[in-house]
Design brief:
- The chain is α/β, with parallel strands linked by helices.
- It has one domain: P-loop containing nucleotide triphosphate hydrolases (Rossmann fold, 3-Layer(aba) Sandwich).
- It contains ten helices and ten strands.
- The strands form two sheets. The chain has a six-stranded mixed β-sheet, with helices on both faces.
- The longest helix is centred in the last third of the chain and has 16 residues.
- The two termini are 36 Å apart.
- The model has no long low-confidence stretch (mean pLDDT 92).
- It binds adenosine-5'-triphosphate and magnesium ion.
- Adenosine-5'-triphosphate binds next to strand 2 and helix 1.
- Magnesium ion binds next to helix 1.
Length: 256
């Protein structure tokens, strides 16, 4: 396999009761790229993320990460290999200060290995990571209880849980959802910064305008199946995508 391929997903499927949540989805991701995963509500985006990261067991299909077959690996082993993910439904420790929320991942085997024994004061490391994603140290935001933080910071905290692992690939499940336009505008450069730092990203998103400021390629799911793949232009012009989103009407202006 080409060593520049970081992730290869092959015909992955999952049925819940009679519902085909993910139906034979395949795609390949090059190291350093940003791939969008889009599709209407309930089209299988979160389930696909759960299947790749081992949180839901696959009915069939294979996942290869960095040349290793991780198809049947448990989530902690997948994270330890460098494939991290954020959760659409976030569950921070609300009664702990923000920085303490990312102490546990700093004790993970991967964080220890990545730091080569130099992790030292984990609280200081945690605060550094938070500051990198916009928690203003001077305003003491890292010390605020997670339960009191506005959504924009909670989304960043999700990213920090991943960053503490020094991941190679992060699957971000709707990091823009629920945010105001100005909050999203400040997240876009942050996601670009992560890419520039060498992290490969999969971004599950409904906010297509903002997504395509970062991602140069996307796959489109509908009823669990991949119905299109390609550049924003290819996706906007795809008849199946128009049908899935608008029942066939030419409303592609909403993407632009
Ligand atoms: N644990 C589960 N048990 C039963 N059905 C499930 C489960 N998880 C997901 N589903 C169903 O699988 C389908 C895909 O859901 P999923 O959450 O993956 O969609 P999504 O694309 O992430 O949606 P959204 O954009 O609303 O986040 C839906 O029909 C959903 O109801
Ligand atoms: Mg979802």
């Amino acid at each position: 396999m080409n060593s520049d391929i970081i992730l290869h997903v092959e015909k992955v499927s999952k049925t819940f009761g009679g519902v085909k949540a993910v139906d034979g989805v395949s795609f390949t991701l090059q190291r350093g790229d940003v791939l969008g995963v889009i599709g209407p509500n309930g089209s299988g985006k979160t389930t696909l993320s759960n299947l790749i990261t081992g949180f839901v067991e696959k009915d069939s299909g294979r996942v290869i990460f960095n040349g290793q077959d991780i198809t049947r690996w448990p989530p902690h082993k997948i994270a330890d290999a460098g494939l991290a993910r954020t959760f659409q439904v976030m569950r921070p420790y609300p009664t702990l200060p923000a920085y303490k929320n990312i102490i546990p991942p700093l004790y993970s085997p991967r964080a220890r290995r990545s730091a080569r024994g130099k992790l030292g004061d984990r609280s200081a490391v945690a605060i550094d990571i938070l500051e990198e994603v916009g928690f203003e140290r001077d305003a003491r935001v890292p010390y605020k209880l997670a339960g009191t933080l506005p959504l924009g910071y909670l989304k960043r905290l999700e990213l920090c849980r991943c960053l503490a692992l020094q991941p190679e690939l992060i699957i971000c499940d709707e990091v823009f959802s629920g945010l105001s336009m100005s909050e999203i505008a400040s997240m876009v450069p942050l996601m670009k910064k992560l890419q520039d730092s060498g992290i490969t990203l999969i971004m599950v998103e409904h906010r297509l305008r903002e997504l395509f400021k970062i991602a140069d390629r996307a796959i489109v799911l509908n009823f669990g199946a991949k119905i299109a793949e390609g550049s924003p232009q290819q996706i906007f012009n795809d008849e199946n995508v128009k049908k899935a989103y608008f029942g066939g009407e030419d409303n592609t202006y909403v993407f632009k």
